[in-house]
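Thread amino acids onto this structure.
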C-alpha cells in the first residue's frame, strides 16, 4: 500500500518542476507523443443536458430537452463516423473515452472503435459529475464490467465526466484496477499519483486543445482547433528537444464532427504528421512507455 496522509488533492503528488526531473526518452529520440481522445457519452433525454447549444425558452428549463439532446445525438449518428474516417485514413488509433452505458446504447460505434484497435477508457457510467454519483464504487465497477464484456478486457484508463473527482475517486479507481487517469490536467509529462492502494499514473490530458472548451465554452471560430493546435504543437516540439512532451487532442462527435469543423481537425493531423520525431500513441501506450522509464 502506498503511504498517503489524508486523501486531499495536494497529498497525491509532490511539486516537481519539469526541468528538475529524471530524464525521459521517447523511442528514436522523438520529441512529442500525441494522443487523441474521442469522447462518447450517454445524454439522457429525460434529464438536464450536460451542455447546451440553445438556451431554454424564456429562461425556463423544459424536459425533455429535445433540441439540446438532438445536438448531441447528431454527433453519434453522423459526426462520429467522420472521426472514424479521419483517423482511419491516417492509420491513427484513438483512445475511446466512453460511458459504460454507451456499449448498449451505441453498439455500432463501439464496434467500430474496437475493430480499429482503439484504447477503451472508462468515462463514467453515464455523463454525470462524480460528485453527483450516489455510489462511485458501483459506477466504476459497472463501467469496467461493461467495457470488459464488450471488448474482452477491462479498461486501463479513466477520464471522469467533466474531469470531476471527489477526494475518494482516485482511491476507488486504483482499487478497481485502473492504471491511468486523464483528470489531472497539470503537466506535459506523465506523473505518478499516490492512492491508498497503489500508485496510478496521470497521462497528460488537455483543456486547451479540447473542443468542449474551444467550441462550446469559448465559442471560437471553426478553425480554432487547427490554429491553436498547430501553435500548441510547435512549442511542445521546440521544448521536446530538451525533454519529451505529451500533447492531447480531445474531441467530441457533436462538436468537431460537424461539417464546418472536421477539415480543421484533418489539417491539424496532417500538420503534425509532417514532422519527424513524433509518435502518435494511445493513452495506454503512453502509460507503458512511462512505466518503462519510471517503474512503479
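Threaded sequence (296 positions):
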Amino acid at each position: 500500500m502506498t503511504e498517503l496522509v489524508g486523501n486531499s488533492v495536494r497529498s497525491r503528488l509532490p511539486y516537481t518542476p519539469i526541468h528538475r526531473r529524471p530524464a525521459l526518452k521517447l523511442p528514436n529520440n522523438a520529441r512529442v507523443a500525441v494522443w487523441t481522445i474521442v469522447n462518447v457519452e450517454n445524454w439522457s433525454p429525460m434529464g438536464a443536458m450536460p451542455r447546451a447549444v440553445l438556451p431554454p425558452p424564456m429562461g425556463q428549463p423544459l424536459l425533455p430537452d429535445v433540441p439540446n439532446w438532438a445536438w448531441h445525438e447528431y454527433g453519434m449518428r453522423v459526426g462520429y463516423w467522420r472521426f472514424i474516417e479521419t483517423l482511419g485514413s491516417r492509420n491513427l488509433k484513438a483512445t475511446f473515452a466512453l460511458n459504460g452505458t454507451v456499449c448498449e446504447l451505441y453498439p455500432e460505434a463501439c464496434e467500430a472503435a474496437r475493430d480499429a484497435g482503439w484504447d477503451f477508457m472508462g468515462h463514467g457510467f453515464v455523463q454525470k459529475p462524480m460528485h453527483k454519483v450516489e455510489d462511485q464504487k458501483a459506477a466504476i465497477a459497472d463501467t469496467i464490467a461493461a467495457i470488459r464484456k464488450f471488448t474482452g478486457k477491462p479498461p486501463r484508463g479513466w477520464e471522469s465526466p467533466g474531469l470531476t473527482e471527489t477526494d475518494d475517486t482516485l482511491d476507488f479507481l486504483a482499487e478497481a484496477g485502473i492504471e491511468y487517469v486523464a483528470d489531472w490536467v497539470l503537466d506535459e509529462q506523465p506523473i505518478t499519483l499516490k492512492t491508498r492502494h497503489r500508485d496510478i499514473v496521470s497521462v497528460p490530458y488537455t483543456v486547451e486543445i479540447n473542443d468542449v472548451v474551444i467550441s462550446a465554452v469559448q465559442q471560437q471560430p471553426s478553425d480554432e482547433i487547427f490554429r491553436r493546435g498547430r501553435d500548441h504543437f510547435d512549442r511542445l516540439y521546440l521544448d521536446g528537444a530538451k525533454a519529451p512532451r505529451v500533447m492531447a487532442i480531445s474531441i467530441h462527435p457533436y462538436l468537431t464532427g460537424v461539417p464546418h469543423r472536421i477539415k480543421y481537425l484533418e489539417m491539424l493531423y496532417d500538420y503534425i504528421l509532417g514532422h519527424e520525431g513524433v509518435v502518435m500513441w494511445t493513452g495506454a501506450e503512453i502509460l507503458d512507455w512511462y512505466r518503462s522509464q519510471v517503474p512503479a
